[in-house]
Amino acid sequence: MAEHARADQQPELDQERLKKQEQRLQRQVERLNEFLAGQQPKQGKDGNEIQSNAVDNESVKMPTSHGVIQGYNAQALVDSKHQVIFGGTGSQHPRPRQSRADADGRQKESHE
Predict the structure, then answer these.
(1) DSSP per-residue letters across 4-16
(2) Is 24 inside a domain boundary?
(3) pLDDT for position 63
(4) Does the residue 45 lie in any domain?
C-alpha cells in the first residue's frame, strides 16, 4: 500500500515503470518476428497450420497421465542385467511407434 501511495506522489516513477515494460514487450515482439521470419509454418494432420513453440519449435504437446506437456517422447533400449544402454531414440510422437520387433532387432545387432 505504501508503495502505491509513493507512486501516486511521484508520477515519474510510474512513467519509468511503464517505459521499462514497453521496452521489454518490444524486445519480445522483435524476438517473435525473428522467429517467424526464419521458420516455415508447421502443418497438422489435417493440413491446416498449427501453433508453433518459439522456444523449442521441434517439441510437441503430448497428453500424459498428468495432463498435457510440451516435450519429446524418449525411448531407451537397456540391458538391466548388465546395466548397459544399447540405444536410444527421441520422437515427436506422443506414443511410441517403434515396434517391439524393431527394438529386439537392435538388441540382437548390438550383441553380435
Answers:
(1) HHHHHH-HHHHHH
(2) no
(3) 82
(4) no
Please tell me the distance from the alpha carbon of residue 1 to that of residue 96, in angstroms, as a whole number. Answer: 54
93 lies in a domain?
Answer: yes
As a whole number, the mean pLDDT across the chain is 76
What 8-state DSSP symbol labels residue 26? H
Cell output for 48: 491446416
Q: What is the grid cell recorded at 89?
A: 531414440
Report field, pTM of the whole predicted structure over 0.85 = no
Q: What's the CA gap between 100 and 75, in Å, rounded?
A: 12
pLDDT at 99: 44
> How far is residue 36's CA from residue 30's CA, in Å, rounded to a whole number?
10
d(CA 91, CA 70): 12
Using CA atoms, how far residue 66 sits from 23, 63, 81, in Å, is 37, 8, 31
Strand residues in 1-112 grouped as ranges (E): 42-43, 49-50, 60-64, 67-71, 73-79, 84-91
Amino acid at 93: H
